[in-house]
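Our consortium's second objective concerns turning raw sequence data into structural hypotheses that experimental partners can test. To show how far this objective has progressed, the report includes one record in full. It was chosen at random from the queue rather than selected for favorable results. The single chain below, 373 residues long, was entered without modification.
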Amino acid sequence: MSIKVLIVDDSHFFRRRIGEIIESTTDMEVIDFAKNGREGVDKALKLLPDVVMMDIEMPVLDGISAVREIMSKHAMPVLMFSSMTHDGAKATLDALDAGAADFLPKKFEEIAGTGKVAAELITNRIRAIVGNRRQRLTPRPLARVARSRVAEPTTPAARARSVAPVAERPVAKRHDISNFKPSGKRYSMLAIASSTGGPVALQELLLKLPANFPFPIVLIQHMPAAFTGAFAERLNRLCKISVKEAQDGDILKPGWAYLAPGGQQMLLERSRRLKVTPGPDHLNYKPSADVAFASIAKNNEGKVLTVVLTGMGSDGCDGARLLVNKGASVWAQDEASCVVYGMPQAVAKAGLTDKVFAISDIGAAIVKEMTSG
């Protein structure tokens, strides 16, 4: 079954070029175009596409208002195109808050060119978002999930350490917050990783933390450099805890969350000091959860609660393995509440998760777990 895509953009050039990229695949088709937000809403509700690709700045009705109206009448995956500016970042975060599933940078040179990078980014993101939604909607027989063997670390940080195999543990089942009992374990910090769908998930989680939360928090969210500053500002404005974009040399403080800057690697050094560095060019993710987690495993006694949220791929799995071997706990977001069940699935399949929660419960569960002692 091909993926049906509706393209909404006031630029004739972008409508045509994105259409060409999608039509060049064997598993997608463009079912229609719309040149403004009002037309996009009407066609989305009439045609019910598998995914809507939506620009933010458009006449008649802007993309944020269009997303909000679509979600209120018939929720469906919406993928936003965003300009790579601070104002563009703030508008994109508003669109995600309105219900958009994810965003893509609107880079004219890359999309206009004949290279494969932009085309693969667009089509892979569509497949991930739609595939996860179809999987959730498809009835599946109840069965015991088999644990896979723990794969060898693939990142340089993970390979640098000799790691004993993680003991076999049963695959964690989803917990209900009303039945959750704290483990009594002592902690010194909270580390959270996320990617696709992460901005909204992180916001929902962090809003549950009280102003007097007694531990520092490190956040690794896959996000362009132009976005992390605006995202940190937004979280700091909305949350009771303090949130900032991490800077080289920051000392971790209780009740503060440090968001890894886009395009950089964030590592924990001794004395609870953060190092922010460009890092090796060959790494796929900047920031990378594997790199951050590996540094935490090296410089922390293992008193870490690690949480892996929605996202494509498996970043964080190798680093989580290192943390588990140091005695850390690993929690994951459940499949039903993920935009893309990639990163949480990776740690679950590797047998690393201690607990699984819906995103609506994780924040409250963290407070219970970390402050009950």
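The partners drew two points from this record. The first strand starts at residue 3 and ends at 8. The longest helix spans residues 116-137. Both points have been shared with the crystallography group to help prioritize constructs.
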